[in-house]
Amino acid sequence: MNFHTKEHGDAPQYPGKPEAIEDRLFINGEFVPSKAGKKFDVYNPATEKVSASVYEADADDVDLAVQAAKAAFPAWSELSALERGHYLERWADALEKSLPEISYLDAISMGKPAYPDPISALAPMIPMIVRFFASKALDVTGESSLNTANFINISLRQPYGVCGAITPWNAPVMFLVYKTAAALITGNTMVLKSSEKAPLSSLTAARCAQEAGIPKGVFNVVSGLGRPCGEAIARHMEIRKISFTGSTATGRAIQKISAESNLKSVTLELGGKSPLIIWDDADLAKAVPAAAMSILMNTGQVCNASTRIYIHSAVADHFLDSLQATMKLMGASGDPLTNGTMRGPQADKAQFERVLSYLDEARESAEVTVTLGGNKEEGRTGYFIQPTILTNVPEDSRLVKEEIFGPVLIVNTFSDEEDVLRKANDTEYGLYSSIFTRDISRALRAAKRLEAGTVAINCTSPTLAFDMPFGGWKGSGEGREFSRYATDYWTELKSVYMAL
Ligand code: NAD
């Protein structure tokens, strides 16, 4: 393999450290420099130093990838579904072997702890997701109907052709495989743009696809910026479907660009401001660590993190004491490449400063109480934020309304069911909601009333299951990933009427 050798920054020795870091684009089954030869730097948020410099794709590179995907489409879509599934199985095997490398590359670009640990070990899900979609191969079917006299009618599910995907930095390869495996098993081909903050591991995933023998052009990965590269994908006239995970603002931009170009089908997985309601009858021994884990995982950079807690006033003091102690323990930060580190820094300087701007506002507010943390971790290199609990936060403040994307919990009290459900739903987001209570009727009333794509009872995020749909209501998105519904979003439906 022809890797380009790159500097790794100050990383200590880690078993997954590759001999060299791939820096090129993956187009038509090969690693190639961008046409213009321009590069951009990727920074290690724990050291604030450059980890790598990678080729930057522009609209010309996107077009090259689209043409490769277009050429590959007829043969790929004509394979039997089981043959496509077989390629995915082999891709999963290659990804599994490369997990230490993927973890290393994410650690040095967005700060996720590289060693498997109880609160941030997402990596093992990567091959599982690909195998899940491989197992869906024979389930992608239409229906038949005899309901019209003298007719047999059938519906067909067919691939779109060339699809686009744009992924965020917080779990780069997990989002890559969700989108790509679903697109490929249904017979589409793919051009994917990774996040400019963490593009390295997506190139390893591309190499794994190459090792798995996935035919040239079926899967293409371009590293690049939102503009021009992401926009070029959203605007491309030969891409008929796009799936995006990222911020609501960018999701809105992509939907607009898609509408302005060819009205491509758009799936959006966006942000959240997920409420967690804890009643006075809840098992706090379970609720407290679940709440802490939800906000500390990936140092709060998780779309479905429970960021707003509503605690019943009768147990609020006890809950807060216990939550503080747990967050201090679970929230200990460290070098992402050191074994045992549970929490790394924020992904980059921009995210760090964004979180700090919310914390500045909290400290300056006359109403808000900073119960834990509330600032950066002083006296150290890297973008580390203290695990933070804010209480008495006005419901109409930016802290309650906006996604902070850091280890920052808002904890407010309640005593009335109607009031807390109204507050929980008083948001533009609708990704995930949770409730802890021993009263089953109350839990089910909440499950029905909460405006979210997922409701968790006596547990909270990251609880998910592959066979359950995942996606957002309201401003949190459009479409679903996971589950038997996921492949629906990667196929067009056609009705065929057959007169007898
Ligand atoms: P972002 O929207 O800034 O960027 C996401 C991707 O979009 C990146 O690849 C970026 O280059 C690209 N992009 C930016 N501007 C673009 C444009 N004009 N046209 C096309 N592409 C463009 O988001 P982020 O900072 O990478 O990720 C954090 C956000 O993502 C948070 O809001 C988080 O909640 C959300 N998120 C959602 C989910 C989910 O499943 N719902 C999962 C992870 C992250």
TrEMBL record:
Q: Which UniProt keywords apply?
A: Oxidoreductase
List each copy of the Aldehyde dehydrogenase domain by range.
Answer: 31-496
The UniProt GO MF terms for this protein read:
aldehyde dehydrogenase (NAD+) activity
Q: Give the SUPFAM superfamilies listed for this entry.
A: ALDH-like
State which Enzyme Commission number(s) the record gives. Answer: 1.2.1.3
Record-linked InterPro entries = Ald_DH/histidinol_DH (IPR016161), Ald_DH_C (IPR016163), Ald_DH_CS_CYS (IPR016160), Ald_DH_CS_GLU (IPR029510), Ald_DH_N (IPR016162), Aldehyde_DH_dom (IPR015590)
The reaction(s) this protein catalyses: an aldehyde + NAD(+) + H2O = a carboxylate + NADH + 2 H(+)
Q: Which family does it belong to?
A: Belongs to the aldehyde dehydrogenase family.
Protein name in UniProt = aldehyde dehydrogenase (NAD(+))
